[in-house]
Design brief:
- This protein is 18% helix and 29% strand.
- The chain is of the alpha+beta class.
- It folds into two domains: 47 residues, no CATH class; 45 residues, no CATH class.
- It starts with 9 loop residues before the first strand and ends with a strand.
- Keywords: FAD, Flavoprotein, Oxidoreductase.
- GO terms for molecular function: flavin adenine dinucleotide binding; oxidoreductase activity.
- InterPro entries: FAD-bd_PCMH-like_sf (IPR036318), FAD-bd_PCMH_sub2 (IPR016169), FAD-linked_Oxidoreductase (IPR050416).
Amino acid sequence: MGRRVVCDTVDNFEVLLASGATVNANLGANPDLWRALRGGPNNFDIATSFTMRSFNQDNYWGGSIIRDGSHIDELLETFEVFTGNPDYDPHATNILNPIWQPASDLWTLAL
């Protein structure tokens, strides 16, 4: 099985169109709208419900590490160890976000 993204698992969208009509968009009904909604920008309609298929994600890990700015060296080292590992998954996503909070004059770091 190839790599999956969430939009590949949507079988049906129930949508409210600008005309006021509520329609289904799926492979059999309104297939052009269905294809456009799967990963397209959200300016076609208002989705009122959708039906998705579940699938086995194998090993799925997620979460955040959030620290104040004094931990920058520790978080940069963690980021380097994780992404520099020879067994690193090339499909994994990691972002180190420095966040400035002007009201408190503090930096927060999220990994």
